[in-house]
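Sequence and structure are no longer studied apart. As an example, we show below a sequence and the tokens encoding its fold:
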Amino acid sequence: MTATIHRGEPATGAARADHRVVRRRLGPGRRFRFAFWVGPALVLAVWSIGSATGLISPAVLTAPWDVVTAFRDQWTDHDLLGNILSSLRRVVVGLAFGVAGGVLLAIVSGLSRIGESVFDGPIQIKRSIPTLALVPLFIAWFGIGEQMKIVTIALISLVPIYVHTHNGLRGIDGKYAELAETIGIGRGEFVRHVVLPGALPGFLLGMRFAVTSALLGLVVVEQYNAVSGVGYMIMLAEQYGATNVIVVGLVIYGLFGYLADTAVRLTGRRVLAWRRTLDD
């Protein structure tokens, strides 16, 4: 028999036990909440063991300790910090424009039938066209400088923000609107206190996809006439056959994405603490 917990009533011992059993079966639990490092640590361990035992040839993948050495050399003898900061600036500026545009379009489209009829169709068409396929067109429009790179990153990150935020807005239960009309809550207050918080999970999910997409765009655009950045470093390393430096760049890109995704996840858990999920 499953215990039932009514709103406003204290949970009984049996109910709490049932709740713990369900969480144990379905969710990771609180003790593993911040254990995001476990997966990367396992990958690093497999990589290290494979390199040490010769299962992974240096011609296939540089050993981790050689990557550390290459990182130190790039840091001390070359402008690795400057390249990292240059890449971060591009992705942060592009992502900021993409997020702002995606949220604005999602709100207009999600809260207005006219807005949806105007904006949703073109954005859905854009979803079927890979942004990276538009890079040659952007080069013709904006040249091969920083403007093209930022526009590409902004556009590639705008779509997931729009789609998931729009779905979150449209997914608000209609019963809340009926309740708001019953108790006399105005439209502005209803949107501010019910609709926008209800769409926040969708926005945060879109942020995770947007961060990954922005980094994908960064990897590509830094191959075009860049004079700084991690991609520029990788291009030079490719010309000289320095595979260890190439792996350094790939590791940096991976860390960018991993840390950004972790930050979004932790932010989501904090701002959505009122929601009970399997991670709780």
Q: What stands out?
A: The domain at 62-271 is CATH 1.10.3720.10 (MetI-like fold). The first helix runs from residue 13 to 26. The radius of gyration is 24 Å. The chain has one domain: 62-271.
